[in-house]
Design a protein that fits this description.
heterodimer, A: about 100 residues, mainly alpha, about 0% strand, B: about 675 residues, about 70% helix, elongated
């Protein structure tokens, strides 16, 4: 039996890595992948607490998150493809038309 | 005093008035309507608009005769009707009519003379530059005169009185291109205005007597005859009102405007300056007679003195005139003084004066229109350029002769009866001086009329061109007026019952007397004047025989130097000194005040503008600037960089997490 704090540590590490990726990466695909990382860190947390508390709700919720994440990635990648078609780049620093 | 008819039935409201009485206001309204129609559509009407005035006057004449017929039929008393006009405090103003026998006679005089003049002008004014305008103004004038005659209150009377003055001014200056004519118009207007000022104050005095409640003439008469006012106040009112008469009826010392008023077209002289407007002054005294009777006796003495001076002076001045219209003008002044003198002799004299007004209106209009026909033929006003017109203008000659004989007082023409009645009253009521003055004036009148007739129609023609008789519209009117002149006197003849006195009376009927020796004396005076005139002017060629009188002739021909005295003594000082002083005051004091006020307002305005620009706008702009500045600072957040937004988001979450965990 893996102890809860270890799982939480792993989860926090994954989440921090995701935050870093979202904030620091220029490539839009990598930003999307970092968001996936953060979502899965949350999933890990949900499952870990579900196990710890003997409550199935957390696992059900994790399944919902996976579903939403799949949809999110589908839409996100579609947007990225459209941006690429229009701007011939997927560098998020250059996609900054909506500003003052 | 006729015993059968007591004062109660003579001065009372008529029960069940006839149609003509109830619609008497139409008589004044129709000519006004004609004037308005003519003004707007006259020029586009065939005949250039003369038809409106003639139609309206014909209708008004028929209605006036209807009104008179009521009184001929034996009706006594008066008819009064009015509608409210406006109210100031206690003062009720009204517009209304007051019709009694006197009004009826005046209505017939005014409408018939005016109709004659309207028709006569068809020929006389033919081709005039302001033909339509001429008809507009004479119709308007007639309406104003009828308003005066019909008025039941003093304000309405004043309105009509002033409109007449304006029309007189417009018509004297009808040919204003000639400077003399416009100056004469101004002189006439201003001179009558001098009389109008006391007249207006007289009206105010009478309204004051009523306690500022009304200007209704019957009510004022009631208050005054009921002793509701002090003698001093009534005397003051009478004297002030007489000022209006002096101005309008051209009495000494304001008579100077009437001879100059002859600058207007001759029909105007006949209508306004002989028959109607100048008689309005006499009418005023007669209408407000109770004021004069209840005043101090000195007032009527003053009236008599003014009349005496005027009638003699004006008759003398008529001697030296060469302009035929001026002869008639001075004659008019003199005859108006006759009427005013009649007024000064009490109720009987009042009836006589109105009888003279009635007959005089017809024969003086006839004389003026006759002189107009002569002027039309020879294109000159001067008798020295006429002569011998008897054969060339036969109709004009005969009608003019009838008019002259009537004016001279030859029986049985109109003038004889009215003059005789005044003489009888003077003798009967004990006015010996006035009696002599009236008799002498009758002699002088006969003399200057003989002179005018001889110089105009006898001897050889001294003018230019070939004079010819006037068109039928003019001669027809002359013949009509001449016929009236022959018979008009009979309505007041004592032998025929003196019916005139049954229409026009003051509170009680007067018995018209016939005193044979007075009638003989007045006939002798007329005959004497005619004989002297005939002997002097029988073979008039170029030099006036009267010039041999030397100094006296110079004095009279210079109009007793009255015009010069007015010019040097009043007009020039006023013009040169008073007006200069007023101008200085105006420039330096009034203008300074006005400019000062303007400068103050400007400075104040500039202060307000500075406040507005600086403070109010400053606040508004300042707020906008603050909003703009902060917006400028904040907009850098909106960079468009998604990752920066995400960074803010996470920072926010962290901050919130810290805050909530602390709590």
């Amino acid at each position: 039996m893996i102890r809860l704090p270890l799982v939480l540590f792993l989860s926090a590490t994954l989440f921090a890595t995701g935050v870093y990726g979202v904030l620091a990466r220029r490539n839009a695909v990598l930003v999307l992948m970092s968001i996936e990382l953060m979502l899965n860190a949350v999933n890990l947390n949900l499952v870990a607490f579900s196990q710890y508390l003997k409550d199935i709700t957390g696992q059900v919720f994790a399944l919902f998150v996976i579903t939403v994440a799949a949809a999110e990635v589908g839409i996100g990648l579609a947007i990225v493809i459209l941006i690429y078609r229009n701007r011939e780049t997927i560098n998020v620093d250059e996609v900054n038309l909506l500003k003052w | 005093m006729v015993a059968a008819e007591s004062a109660e039935t003579l001065v009372k409201a008529i029960q069940d008035p006839s149609w003509f009485l109830r619609y008497a206001w139409l008589i004044a309204f129709l000519p006004a309507l004609a004037a308005v129609l003519n003004l707007f559509i006259g020029k586009r009407t065939p005949g250039k608009g003369s038809i409106y005035g003639i139609t309206a006057l014909a209708a008004a004449l028929v209605m006036s005769l209807g009104v008179l017929w009521t009184f001929v039929g034996g009706e006594r008393g008066f008819y009064e009707a009015s509608i409210p006009w406006f109210q100031i405090g206690q003062l009720h103003m009204e517009v209304g009519v007051y019709v009694d026998g006197l009004t009826a006679v005046m209505l017939v005089v005014v409408t018939s003379i005016s109709l004659c003049v309207h028709i006569y002008s068809l020929g006389y004014m033919k081709g005039d530059v302001r033909y339509t305008w001429f008809y507009v103004v004479i119709s308007l004038f007639t309406s104003a005169m009828l308003v005066v005659v019909l008025a039941n209150n003093l304000f309405q009377l004043l309105v009509g009185w002033e409109v007449m003055g304006v029309c007189s001014y417009l018509l004297i200056g009808h040919w204003w291109e000639d400077h003399v004519n416009s100056s004469s118009a101004i002189k006439a207007f201003i001179t009558t205005r001098i009389g109008d000022v006391p007249f207006m104050f007289g009206i105010f005095t009478l309204i004051f007597i009523t306690g500022f409640t009304t200007s209704n003439i019957p009510k004022i008469s009631e208050i005054v005859s009921g002793g509701g006012a002090s003698v001093g106040l009534v005397s003051a009112a009478a004297l002030l009102l007489f000022g209006g008469t002096i101005g309008k009826s051209a009495q000494f010392p304001l008579h100077v405007w009437l001879p100059d008023a002859m600058a207007g077209p001759t029909p105007v002289s006949a209508l306004i300056h002989a028959a109607t407007m100048v008689a309005a002054g006499v009418y005023l005294v007669g209408r407000l007679f109770i004021i004069f009777l209840d005043a101090d006796p000195v007032v009527l003495q003053i009236v008599a003195i003014v009349a005496g001076i005027t009638m003699l002076g004006a008759a003398l001045m008529a001697f030296t005139q060469d302009d035929i219209k001026r002869v008639l003008a001075y004659s008019t002044i003199s005859q108006l003084a006759y009427m005013v003198a009649g007024m000064s002799m009490g109720p009987a004299g009042r009836t006589g004066a109105f009888f003279h007004l009635f007959t005089h209106a017809f024969f003086k209009a006839l004389l003026f229109l006759g002189s107009g026909a002569v002027i039309h033929a020879v294109h000159s006003n001067n008798m020295s350029e006429m002569g011998g017109l008897r054969k060339r203008l036969p109709i004009t000659f005969w009608t003019f002769l009838i008019g002259s004989l009537a004016l001279s007082g030859v029986p049985p023409l109109a003038g004889f009866w009215s003059k005789d009645e005044l003489l009888v009253v003077a003798e009967h009521e004990g006015h010996p001086i006035l009696f002599v003055v009236l008799l002498v004036t009758a002699l002088l009148t006969a003399f200057y009329m003989t002179r005018a007739v001889l110089m105009t129609f006898f001897g050889d023609y001294r003018g230019h061109g070939e004079p010819h008789e006037a068109p039928r519209s003019m001669t027809g009117v002359l013949v009509a007026l001449a016929s009236v002149t022959v018979v008009a006197g009979l309505v007041g003849s004592p032998q025929l019952g003196a019916v005139f006195g049954k229409w026009v009376y003051f509170q009680e009927l007067e018995e018209a007397l016939f005193v044979p020796w007075v009638a003989l004396l007045s006939t002798l005076a007329a005959a004497g004047g005619i004989l002297i005139g005939y002997s002097l002017y029988r073979d008039y060629k170029a030099r006036d025989p009267l010039t041999s009188l030397g100094g006296a002739y110079t004095l009279v021909s210079n109009k007793f130097y009255l015009d010069d005295i007015y010019w040097k003594g009043i007009i020039r000082p006023v013009r040169d000194n008073l007006s200069a002083a007023v101008y200085w005051t105006n420039q330096n004091i009034l203008d300074a005040a006005v400019n000062g006020a303007a400068a103050f307002a400007k400075a104040l305005g500039q202060g307000v503008r500075w406040f507005d620009d600086t403070v109010i706008d400053g606040i508004v702009n300042g707020l906008a600037n603050i909003a703009g500045f902060t917006g400028g600072l904040l907009r850098y957040i909106q960079s468009g960089n998604v990752q920066r937004y995400a960074a803010f988001l996470f920072t926010g979450v962290v901050v919130l997490a810290i805050i909530f965990t602390r709590i």
